[in-house]
Batch of 3 targets.
Target 1
Amino acid sequence: MQEDEDNSKDSLLRDYDTVLKESTLLTTFSGVLFGFLLNISITAANRLEYAHKIILVLALFSITIAVSLFVMPVIYHHLQFPYRDLGKFKRRAHRFIMFGLAPTFFTLYLGMVLAFAPLINNFGYVIAMLPFALVYFLYRLRK
């Protein structure tokens, strides 16, 4: 009886740990990307064209939303601990992370546009889609 209870607690801690580590990794990645974009906006904004300034602002807002969503499982963990329903925690954490991925991908796309647009003008919008198309294509091939 005691052994089953200990195994259940170990499994519960492992599940918490996995969700919180995923959230931490995504928050760290997004935070670094945010810092990079913020640095560009502070140091190089006066050299950017107006359209590129708008893209930079959109990217900053987008990554801010993503960071906020990625940190939510940790906040939720601290607000709701101890849980009566681990499944509910995992579902909510999963939703926060999934909703955070869209603005992260959008920010990555905008970052690619900022990198390519000065070199190849409007064609940069198309070129910036290529890495995402490749990842999608490889994802579809895995099935």
Target 2
Amino acid sequence: MKKTPYLLRLAICLCMLAVSSSVSFASHIVGSDLTYSWVSGNTYTVRLTLYADCGPASAAAYAGLPTAVPQICVYDDTTLVTTFNLSITGPSAGIEVTPTLCPGVLSQCDSVGSTMPGITLFEYTGTYTLPSASANWEFRYVGNLGSSGAAGRAGAITNLITAGSSTMALSAKLNNSSGHNTSPVLNVIPLPYYAINMFHNYNPVAIDAEGDSLVYSLIDVTGGSGSAACTYAAPPTYGGGLSGSAPLLTAPGTFSFNTFSGQLSFYPNVLQRAAALYNIKEYRGGTLIGSLQRELTILINATTNHLPGGNFTSVSGCTLVDTTTILVCDTTGSFSATIPAFDADAADSITLVPFGVPAGATLSITGNGTPSPVSTFSWNGTTAPHGLHTFFIKYFDNACPMNGYQTIAYKVQVTDCSYVPTNTKGMANSKAEGVFPNPASDALTIAHGDFNSACTITLYDAVGRAVKTTESIPGTTQTILNTSDLPNGLYTVRLINESGTRNITVSVQH
């Protein structure tokens, strides 16, 4: 178990988040989400979630959140259509979401005299009917909380210059030109508290009920005006050579971000408080159908608590690509892979919570709540859909006074292995974007070029029907599609990731 000095250091760091008690500039907000859900027709419910530090240093600003009236601006492309207001949902006092504390330990949400930080979630919703269908709808929040002021960032943020004088802004986009859409649900709250000089993972665990393909990116935070004018303000400037895509100071070569799973991995080597903005796009049949945004503050402190985690180890009927990815042929039948949990603090017990296990697959856990639980992922390659599938495991320890946790994404690539390419000329060394051979016969090799970070690959026939789809394995430069079962004709290969969309025409001739 961890000792009390960790508590004191963490409390000091977090209390710095509240650098202003002004109601007009609520700089105690440490995270925010903007999402929407379809109701019927062109009617949607928009949801703004704010995560606020309830410490005494920001009491005046915090007190305005129960009566805040956030404004949402509705745009059709660049045209402002209207505005509407959100109202608080659920208890007006908010819901405390402080990471789990040990018995008898109170947060500042429960006791003004406590030294333990506390975070409260405030959720605001409003329903609006769009006047028509459009590919370019945008719900925009520029930080306006009505009479409660503006959603200001903490002045203690270290990766932004003059962060304390900036305001949060978020955007959620919608293409309802060919149907409705609902944003993915984010299952992990944006409260990452991590230790210096240790390796960590963060993932929002976005689960989309409609089965859309999700593409993640880290982008520059946006500046909000906080006014009723719906305008953006100049965004804050990053310092120390940092940027939206690389917002943390880390040991060289340890920062990575997976655009397919949303996994942020890093080894911080400096005490810091970094603002980061997730942008999550949804694609359906190769078409951009919507997006959402989450801003969070990543706190790197001086704790000595090691966070629990787990890697794929022994496998049966599949191939281990890396510690979090396995590859299986669709001719394999049943396969499995084990994930033993670990924690460098041997006395800690570990609890696992899975999310997003693919339909038809199972994740069994033995020894949950002990120092050494083991997960076993099982599926059947002959029935699993082709492509890259992702599931998540959230790991908790029982460190005191505050439990540590992190979430890790695991990837399962199901590949069509029922054929052997007959034309392999030029495959070995090609890294340029393109397809070959062209014309193709029984197999088509797609070279990803700068799309090799992870991309959705879809093959469309001449009338625009998706006939094959898969996901590239991050770090690879090529993917092979079986075309032996396709009729002769022209096809379009579409590659999608955070860089955008690219289309390549190819001919299939047997």
Target 3
Amino acid sequence: MKKAQKLIQKVQSISWIKKLIEYKFMPIICWSILVAVLPYLFSLVSVPIVWRIGLLFIIINSIISYHVGKQILQLNLKRWWLLILPGLFCLAIFPKFANYNLIFGIIYFIFELFGLMDKNIYR
């Protein structure tokens, strides 16, 4: 645990990373990159397709996209930031995975809208 904290502190002490962390939109970019990279990590680990779609695409990425919607609301970012996560996901999925996975970009956009609505979903 302490080694991980030391590693994080070393990474955060790099000058260009310090500058990037200062921007208020960086959590959105980081979560979007994570959503774009996770399918490739799951396929490298040889996770079966059914588990990859069920666990990663439906559960994990939906939770992340809801969280990104809440982050956009909390950070008072413009609404076009809602397009970053689904756009990066679709660009990452297009070269290697089946085209039907592109529908998840729309699903993630909807979950971001739910996160943006926060507690006003039923109003």
